[in-house]
Design brief:
globular; 22 helices; M28 family peptidase (chains A, B); TFR-like_dimer_dom_sf (chains A, B); Glucose Oxidase, domain 1; homodimer
């Protein structure tokens, strides 16, 4: 299916809310809240942990990456399940580039020889680990390449690591680098290596970060054994995600495509992930300076930087195929507001079997859908339309979700109330990130879901964890006083990204976890056998996730007045603004200090002369920025959101108009920057983006923050104005409500 | 020699200082300062790096622990050197208990068997490593014992580690514990194990702390190889050091001795140090819970706590011999104040060859003595008496120095102006600790000694290092603004302890280091071959140490007005007082918080239920203490020391009396507590002691601080008064000067 017409026609209903503010559920009248609670009870009764376990077992029974027969089978199975639950369902197909390995060779050629295994072995304790049709260990979007060069160890391969290499007098130009996984999204490592002139990049899982340092290794324990490899994408998704050949538009069959060589998010160098078994002989052979203490990993020898005779041969070639990308889209039309959509999604493609990533999330989503289907049969219908999406191709580049959002941009911006994402799930604590206006609603839901292990609400357990984890008495006291959990700001790494950052649709990302640590991520060992031992043995957290997201979806679907509270957005953006001012001040002070230290030869005098560590390069002074436009816009936002709150409170006694609801849920689009972020215009949100050098990790007020961090003073000042303009657009927009 | 009469008769000279404050050396008139600088130039010219290298090579050429033929030969060689330099010299002999191994056996008996090597192998790259007469790897003062029991891994074996084991539900009662070296003095580990009911204690060097994590291992690099073992004392020296059979008195031949079983500083359980080669099979065999992340070391597997089937057999027996302890005491009688002694010392005994520890310090001391001897020949004499001491038996328990100080207590308290200690030396930065009144003098000296590698003063380089090492911008700015280095407070671990903490004699401990990291400490690999590669290849830091301590000694010897500045003591004790008030407040707040957390079940709710971690035990609330007596005493001290400073400044224009000088150098004795510290009365200093649970690490205002830390509230209040009394004694004493 492609270029399909979306299900629902546009109609407008002004609906009545009475006394909503005094009910126990925001956005509902007292009476309606009682009804909603009874619906939630019914919803809960239809959820079944064993069923979730069976779904995980079935859908992870074979490898099912995008473009594979297994992937098609999983999409079909999900389609059939939705259908059997009574949902309208279709498969939206796109046609996307997806590279798979043709040749993979890594050999050390000097001072000794070693041929890397590049293979995770089958284990008798893991039933699916020996299956055919597994994708080999590789990084998708590596360039084709055949290079032989000296090897340099670059720690985590981040910009600051290259600053240190500069101080050590080591260049990676013309070399192959070997970097540890961790401390950033993996795609940053080859990107930064390429920026520094490296010819190739090897990424390995060090046992200090992902292996025996954390506990017993698989299959005895959950952690990465010596042969485990983390597959994964190395597309430069901070530039844009989705099909690299169709930026900004859906990858329909007839879409206009650019040449692969024109795609700004594709690497020019080959990249390969390896196990610590394969890394050990290479690292052990390295000569040159001993690595700085903080760079040392968990292998049993002194880590060196290289620069001696150690030479490796890296040869990689890929099938650069266009493959079908099957998004399963299921819906239940709303009874009152069919053109207001509650969109909920989880991807279905995996690198291999993916019992945890993504099937544990899909299983919860299907359980929600089944329960809702059961409720349908009893005559209930949601007031707004529910749209449940199982995305394909998330792993390589958020392919399915991005192409779908690009393809349906205008319709989504008009109709999508919220996008609720999950991407796997396990035992532990509620984690939720997303648009701050939704924070109160999420907290209300979290207070009603019971933690399977402790019997308290998942909100209470989450707050207890925050208190226990706080590291100072003061921080613990503050955490203990908290009654609400905060929504984390969203960067990237899952399918919420196109909704939030390209389309400006309020988004949430929700999961349980924290007691599921292990080394299975993107490995053949992310299997049902692993999941049922180490992730969520009773599958009760699958039920908890279904309860949590189900309530969020059902409350959004049925609320008289949509529970959006922009005062929470003001609080966050005010904090981000203050952070930026502090960041600039701190950088100004530390730069001035460093200039002084260089003038006084402090680095030279303090250095061990036997180690030949150069002083850092001098940096330009940090100017004072005019933050006033942003500060004024944020101050204005406080007034606007306070007034809005008063209006909404009053309106509970009167009719809440659907125009108001539409205004509330479409408000976040005001924050989209017309031109997007500098050098990556796909990212349009003025407040949230994945970091250009963090990958998944969020940068708030990213235009300003990254300009300051990257010492681009002119751009920083310009971005302050653009962010202020975006917030003022929101101010003016929200002002309409009380005008 | 024993019960010797000390060299020098008492005489009193009132000597004239003119305008001392305006010269460039504190305590000297301008003219005298010029003369002193010329003497220092002469002193420097006689120092020779190659000679220091030769001394290190010669004196470390054979094993020379206390009681050995090699030890006697080294003492004789030092004696002869002093003699040849023109010093009066004698050997003061004591008779001390010193255990050496008779039986050493460590075997794992279940689940598999392993017999520990307990042997550091000879290396062809290390000429002395294969010699006979090496002391085997052992911990002196281990009890005899033959125990077989289950094995428990206790991290560093400190009280907080046992708190965590309690939370894990693990008891060491009736077990043998295995602890990592580090994070405290080694003797704390078996002491705490014994307090918790363990039957035996194994201490090993983990490669994360002392091995390949730091760099290449010996002999390729300097760091501990898999077979290296740290010998060392595990006497409970925080109770009292020296011969355990003769507490408080010199261990002369006829001294009254207690029974070994009565000695409060001897362990009841066997203790053995092992290499990481020997530790690996034991640790790998451990079952039970995975160790907390922070406990994990550098061996390539997941560390477990134990509690399963792993069983070890530890059998140790010792020769409990009384051996001669040879202190070499050399002197040059002062021309004007022969009964005022500048005492300088460094021990000569080693665990094995001890090129670094202690011979590099002895070599610098002998080079000072030779240079001074050369000056004597040209007609110069010091005004005060120089007493240079090479101590025996420091390694097992500060035996030589402690017995000497106990034996000569009254005379030393009358005559000793200062005790200046060193204990090895290497490439790097000046480190100096000691009595704060000497801080200004040490800084003046440090400003005149040139760093061999950078050509700036050792003071400037040291301050540059402090600035570079500061971790925040604010800390770096503060460090950059500093013009003076601070003297660290002295705990224990070398021969200054009896002088400072038993006798109240102003003390200094001075060394260079910080660019000499390695794994040779108390190993057979602390050899000349190691030293010349990794410690101070040019021996120029030996010259720098000789220059530094030589200047300190010569300035103290020749000053008209002794350069003691008690304002610096006030500053430090004021800071310690504020630290204690903060400590009590912080503990009160954190205890109240923890009580709240327990009441709210925060630990239980936040814990991973699969890990069965119990909440911590409830703690009693921290009361408010009356710090007023101490605060008043310290406030008074500020006035007293300010007035004293005015008196001393004025006196520079008049005659400085020798009575004044005596008053100045004997002042620190006012700080001695008549009864000493609780449960360890040997330690008499109210301001400085080694920590009861740190061993070497200092505790300032120890009576108060440890009572608070150990939650003994009654004792804390009592100790506040005793410390205040001590400071008030000093106030009244110093008041005499300006009365």
């Amino acid at each position: 299916m492609k270029n399909h017409v979306l299900f629902l026609c546009c109609c407008f209903v002004v609906h009545t809310a009475s006394n909503a503010q005094s009910t126990t559920i925001s956005g509902f009248s007292n009476a309606d809240a009682q009804a909603q609670l009874s619906i939630e009870k019914q919803f809960d009764q239809n959820l079944n942990a064993a069923n979730i376990g069976n779904t995980i077992k079935q859908l992870s029974s074979h490898p099912h990456h995008i473009g594979s027969a297994g992937g098609k089978a999983v999409a079909d199975s999900i389609y059939n399940r939705f259908k059997s639950y009574g949902w309208e369902v279709r498969i939206d197909t796109y046609h996307v580039l997806f590279p798979t390995p043709k040749t993979r060779l890594l050999q050390m050629t000097a001072p000794t020889t070693y041929k890397a295994l590049l293979k995770e072995p089958a284990l008798k304790e893991d039933a699916t680990s020996g299956q055919q049709d597994q994708l080999p260990t590789y990084n998708a979007w590596s360039a084709d390449g055949d290079v032989t060069a000296g090897l340099i160890f670059v720690n985590y391969g981040l910009p600051e690591d290259y600053d240190m290499l500069d101080r050590m007098g080591v260049s990676v130009k013309g070399k192959i680098v070997i970097a540890k996984y961790g401390h950033s999204w993996r795609g940053i490592k080859p990107k930064v290596a390429q920026e520094h002139g490296a010819l190739g990049c090897i990424i390995y899982s060090d046992p200090a970060d992902d292996g025996y340092f954390a506990g017993d290794v698989y299959p005895k324990g959950a952690f990465k054994n010596e042969y485990g490899v983390q597959r994964g994408s190395v597309m430069d998704m901070p530039v844009y995600p989705g099909d690299p050949l169709t930026p900004n538009v859906g990858a329909t069959a007839n879409a206009q495509r650019i040449e692969r060589s024109e795609a700004a998010n594709l690497l020019k160098i080959p990249v390969l992930p390896i196990s610590y078994h394969d890394a050990q002989p290479l690292l052990k052979a390295l000569e040159g300076p001993v690595a700085p203490a903080a760079w040392h990993g968990g292998l049993p020898f002194a880590y060196h930087i290289g620069g001696g005779t150690t030479q490796v041969h890296l040869k990689l070639a890929f099938n650069w195929d266009i493959v079908p990308c099957y998004n399963v889209i299921a819906a239940i039309k709303g009874s009152q507001y069919p053109d207001e959509w509650i969109v909920r999604g989880n991807h279905h493609d995996a690198w291999v079997n993916g019992a945890n990533d993504p099937i544990s999330g899909i299983a919860a989503m299907l359980e929600e859908a089944k329960s809702i289907g059961d409720m349908l049969k009893s005559g209930w219908r949601p007031k707004r339309t529910l749209v449940y999406c199982a995305w394909d191709g998330e792993e390589p580049a958020l392919l399915g979700s991005t192409e779908w959002v690009e393809d349906h941009l205008k319709e989504l911006q008009q109709k999508a109330v919220v996008y609720i994402n999950s991407d796997g799930n396990a035992r532990g604590f509620l984690n939720a990130g997303g648009s701050p206006a939704l924070q109160q609603m999420v907290n209300e839901v979290a207070a009603t879901v019971t933690d399977p292990q402790t019997g308290v609400s998942v909100l209470k357990r989450r707050l207890a964890k925050e208190t226990a984890d706080a590291t100072t008495t003061k921080a613990k006291e503050e955490a203990l006083a908290k009654k609400e959990m905060e929504l984390g700001a969203l960067g990237s790494g899952s399918d919420f990204s196109p909704f939030l950052q390209f389309a400006g649709i309020p988004s949430l990302n929700i999961e349980y976890g924290g007691e599921d640590a292990g080394g299975d991520y993107h490995s053949i060992y992310d299997s049902y056998d692993n999941y049922r031992r180490f992730k969520d043995p009773s599958f009760q957290y699958g039920v908890a996730l279904a309860q949590t997201i189900g309530r969020v979806a059902l409350r959004q679907a049925d609320a008289q007045q949509l529970p959006f509270y922009y005062q929470d957005f003001y609080k966050d953006v005010n904090e981000y603004t203050n952070q930026l001012i502090t960041l600039a001040n701190d950088m100004r002070e530390s730069t001035a200090l460093e200039t002084e230290l260089l003038k006084d030869s402090i680095y030279t005098l303090a250095a061990d002369t036997a180690k030949h560590l150069l002083p850092p390069q001098p940096k330009t002074a940090v100017p004072y920025f005019d933050f006033a436009p942003l500060q004024n816009a944020v101050a204005h936002l406080q007034k606007t959101t306070d007034s809005l709150h008063q209006v909404l409170v009053k309106m509970n006694d009167a009719n809440t108009s659907d125009v108001l609801n539409k205004t509330l849920y479409q408000a976040e689009q005001q924050l989209l920057l017309p031109e997007g972020l500098p050098r990556r215009g796909w990212y349009k949100h003025a407040v949230y983006a994945p970091g250009f050098y963090t990958g998944y990790g969020v940068k708030t007020l990213p235009g300003i923050r990254e300009a300051v961090e990257q010492r681009n003073w002119t751009e920083a000042q310009a971005q302050i104005q653009l962010a202020a303009d975006a917030i003022d657009r929101l101010n003016n927009y929200l002002q309409q409500i009380h005008d």
